[in-house]
Design a protein that fits this description.
Elements: H1 8-25, E1 29-34, H2 37-40, H3 42-57, E2 61-66, H4 69-78, E3 85-86, E4 89-90, H5 94-118, E5 123-127, E6 134-138, E7 147-152, H6 155-162, E8 166-170, E9 172-174, E10 180-182, H7 185-196, E11 200-205, E12 223-225, H8 226-234, H9 242-254, E13 259-264, H10 270-276, E14 283-286
Parallel strand pairs: 1-2, 1-11, 2-8, 5-8, 11-13, 12-14
Antiparallel strand pairs: 3-4, 6-7, 9-10, 13-14
Helix pairs in contact: 3-5, 4-5, 7-9
Length: about 290
């Protein structure tokens, strides 16, 4: 694709047009749950990091919360283990949770930190284990070390934000006995955003948002109240893999987040489109 060329006047117009939105979010907390194709595709990954660094540089306090399921599955395959899922959750035995910790808190987390810093950001990677950020219990004995969140301690994130860092959080948890748990990243993002009193939670996915007709992207629903979302559950407009995404958005709003957005992470610079334009991107859930 031929690169678009802009005059200096056009660049100035774009920057001044973004000023009201920059003022709106300056000093506010925006939590970004990062995963899906935007994490796997190298070009998209770089664009997401550029968006986050830009927002941080204009005074937005961005918290990046990430998963990494495909990387965990890849490492399991290398070690001769076959991934097994029940209702979309990975069955996690003692060996698998060690692999998850190694991949999520190690490879994936530090790769994102490195990318943010290469783009000019100031980032620090932590896991839900650090500072008892995510306390958890076993969700279901049949799933092994898959955790249900019992408590969130946001002090480590707040400390990093106050020092000007972009916190990069891998979604592992622990209990008082020292057990490590694999935590669903969407769920962790809703808990963390709520505890922080975030202005926005952005859930990056591989679809445009909530569609009235799931086969027609033009039927995107730009905004939903909780009551409207419940009605769409009832009529099965929201179905399948979209159910837990919307549920996490509702949970975040009920926990104190001003709004939660499900957006298509495959769209270049979708975060900037959401925060710095009138048009926005994806489906916004509000109370």
């Amino acid at each position: 694709m031929e690169e678009l060329q802009f005059t200096n006047a056009q660049r100035a117009h774009v920057l001044t047009g973004a000023l009201p939105y920059i003022r709106r979010y300056n000093g506010r907390i925006v939590a970004v749950k990062y995963g899906g194709n935007a994490m796997i595709n190298e070009t998209l990954r770089e664009q997401v990091m550029e968006d986050i660094v830009l927002l941080s540089m204009v005074g937005v306090k961005v918290v990046l919360i990430h998963g990494g399921g495909p990387d965990v599955s890849d490492m399991m395959a290398r070690l001769g283990k076959v991934p097994e899922f029940v209702d979309g959750l990975r069955v996690t035995d003692a060996e698998t949770v060690e692999i998850a910790q190694m991949v999520l808190a190690g490879k994936v987390n530090k790769t994102l930190v490195k990318l943010l810093e290469l783009k000019g950001g100031k980032a620090m990677g932590i896991s839900g284990i650090d500072g008892h950020l995510i306390m958890a219990r076993q969700k279901n004995p049949a799933l092994g070390f898959v955790g249900a969140i019992t408590e969130v301690c946001i002090d480590p994130i707040v400390d990093l934000l106050e020092k000007g860092y972009i916190p990069v959080v891998s979604t592992l948890g622990c209990d008082a006995e020292g057990n490590t748990y694999n935590i669903n990243a969407d769920t962790a993002a809703s808990y963390i955003a709520g505890a922080l009193g975030a202005d926005r939670l952005i859930m990056m996915t591989d679809i445009a948002g909530v569609l009235r007709d799931r086969n027609d992207p033009s039927t995107l629903i730009p905004k939903l109240t909780i009551d409207e979302a419940v009605e769409l559950f009832r009529t099965e407009v929201i179905a399948g893999g979209m159910i837990p995404k919307v549920e996490c958005c509702i949970d975040a709003v009920l926990r104190g987040v001003d709004s939660a957005i499900i957006m298509d992470g495959r769209v270049p610079h979708s975060i900037l489109m959401e925060l710095l334009t009138d048009e926005g991107a994806g489906t916004m859930v509000v109370k």
